[in-house]
Amino acid sequence: MSACNSTDQHPALSLPPRCCFVTVGATAGFRDLLDEVSTPGFLRALAEQGYGRLDVQCGPDLAHFRARVAALADKDRQGIEVSAFDLVDDITPFLVACRGEEGVRLAGCVISHAGTVLEVQRVGAPLVVVANPTLMDNHQLELAEDLARRKLAVHGRIGHLDEALAKIAQLVNEGMLDRLPPYAPPTLPVLPENRVTFFDWMVLTCYPDELRKQRHLATLNQAAVRIAAPKHKGEEEDIARMQVE
Amino acid sequence: MAAQGQEPDDVEITLLAVLIAGAGIFGITLVLLPLKWSVLLVAGLVAFLLYRHHIVKLHSPSAQSFPLSSTPRPTSSTSPRNALPSTTSLPAAYTTYILGSGGHTTELLETIRRSWQPASNTHRRYIISVNDTSSLTRAAQLETSFAKACRQLGDERLWGTTDVVLIPRARKVHQSFWTAPWSCLRAAIAAIRAVVVPPKARWGQAGFRWAHVLVTNGPANGFIVGAVVHGLKLLGIVPLDRARVVYIESWARSRTLSLTGRLFNLTGFADVFIVQHRELEGRVKGAVYLEGLVGKEI
């Protein structure tokens, strides 16, 4: 997949090389993952895909990881700049560094345990999920498989992370993830059309009269919207049924 | 934010004493009474609780009683009207959130952020485990950002009010099996207070006596609070048209339920049981699928 090296595709822009961010979570630690990302083979795969930087959040195994990196020969590092730390309050800047942005930076990838998926998704950085096999509960594995099936993430397996990088390159190409608009941090309050209104309905169930009134209004509104633009067959029947109710 | 409940205080010890004394008197009565009467007493009690359970479930709202937001959402172009549902004109909108640790807290706080709207009639209560400083800090951060947003809107009253109640953990990691019932009982006692005591900042205000909705997403303490609420409803202490319990199965559960989820599903203590994956919806009886609570903005 080295053909996907996008620095060749945008020679005029001369964007900085891609970033890879590895995070293992705060408490449990994930030594297998740290060991894998400090092998010469993985660093070579990074270099081949156009990466130039590797940031690693190590949790309790910081000293272990640093010792492994220090033991690497210069040629094994493949020119990748590696930096490691144990914890930070806010990983968002690292995630944003892996998010492609039109004219600013190329998409890198985040390699994480299953616990960080939501934060990465919110930023929109390409994601490799690695389920931690040492945790007893295997729902992390289920989640990783389901996310991969829905193309929301790549399922990374210990020992085969170079394959995951190749899949990321494919995803980035398919989804034009190198050319996203700038990252916009979440707004407060959220936009009305994005707001979760479920709990408001639940509060309204404590006020039955108000609930009845608003439910009726909501039904009328929905019907009005659908009459204005009926999309599917059968919606007219829905509307008729709602009016009967 | 006012915190309470670090150590068992007078009220909790009194409650505990009353509970133990009640159980003791009941036990002694059973022993002293002739067998026939004992059996009748127990049967009567069970019948009463079953009847009350039935009544409580009758008054429980189903998710079918209102349009779910997982049905197509209004887009900005189609909603120039006042958005529905609207709770801002109600006398009160009081919600209790039971935070767990780590990933549970992250998810629930994100859901709270997505459901928040500035309204002066709101009260948010956070029930947090003692020693869970991370959840406490993050809840405070979220509330600070709410307050800041209200200041920018030019009216600090829109923030409403908020408080925190700390309760002991029902079960610590690696806790021995034998001490678990004791710590569960202590958590339950603290949970009774957390449910029954109205917010100080809203003392005496109409509508703030009982929480309207209690939301949890998986920590063991969430189930304890759910059980306490159900018990108080059975006894007629919490009114039947208040304290709706919403259980949200963690987004990280795509195929199987967590232990807390199985308990809620088995007991029916939750009024609404939400799952966040289509696959899980099919596997869990009575589950409601809802998207957009966490994860990618859709």
Automatic annotation (TrEMBL), chain A:
Give the GO terms filed under biological process for this record: dolichol-linked oligosaccharide biosynthetic process
Q: Which residues form the Glycosyl transferase family 28 C-terminal domain?
A: 20-169
User: Which reaction does this chain catalyze?
Assistant: an N-acetyl-alpha-D-glucosaminyl-diphospho-di-trans,poly-cis-dolichol + UDP-N-acetyl-alpha-D-glucosamine = an N,N'-diacetylchitobiosyl-diphospho-di-trans,poly-cis-dolichol + UDP + H(+)
Location(s) in or outside the cell? Endoplasmic reticulum
Q: What are the protein's UniProt keywords?
A: Endoplasmic reticulum, Glycosyltransferase, Transferase
One GO molecular-function entry:
N-acetylglucosaminyldiphosphodolichol N-acetylglucosaminyltransferase activity
**InterPro entries to which the protein is assigned, alphabetical:** Glyco_trans_28_C, UDP-GlcNAc_transferase
Function of the molecule = Involved in protein N-glycosylation. Essential for the second step of the dolichol-linked oligosaccharide pathway.
Taxonomic lineage from the root? Eukaryota, Fungi, Dikarya, Ascomycota, Pezizomycotina
Spell out the protein name for this chain. Answer: UDP-N-acetylglucosamine transferase subunit ALG13
Assembly, in brief, is: Heterodimer with ALG14 to form a functional enzyme.
**Listed GO cellular component terms?**
UDP-N-acetylglucosamine transferase complex
Chief location category: endoplasmic reticulum
Quote the EC number: 2.4.1.141
The family line of this record is: Belongs to the glycosyltransferase 28 family.
- Top-level division of the source organism's lineage: Eukaryota
From TrEMBL, chain B:
One GO term under biological process is:
dolichol-linked oligosaccharide biosynthetic process
Which residues constitute the signal peptide according to the record?
none
GO CC annotation, single: UDP-N-acetylglucosamine transferase complex
Q: Does the keyword Transmembrane helix apply?
A: yes
Kindly give the membrane topology term recorded for this protein.
Single-pass membrane protein
Keyword Transmembrane helix annotated: yes
| Location(s), subcellular | Endoplasmic reticulum membrane; Nucleus membrane
The UniProt keyword set, sorted, is: Endoplasmic reticulum, Membrane, Transmembrane, Transmembrane helix
- GO terms, molecular function: N-acetylglucosaminyldiphosphodolichol N-acetylglucosaminyltransferase activity
Record field: transmembrane: 12-31, 37-55
Which family is this protein grouped under?
Belongs to the ALG14 family.
The protein's role, per its UniProt record: Involved in protein N-glycosylation. Essential for the second step of the dolichol-linked oligosaccharide pathway. Anchors the catalytic subunit ALG13 to the ER.
Q: What is this protein called?
A: UDP-N-acetylglucosamine transferase subunit ALG14
Query: Can you name the source organism?
Result: Chaetomium thermophilum (strain DSM 1495 / CBS 144.50 / IMI 039719)
- Species lineage, top-down? Eukaryota, Fungi, Dikarya, Ascomycota, Pezizomycotina
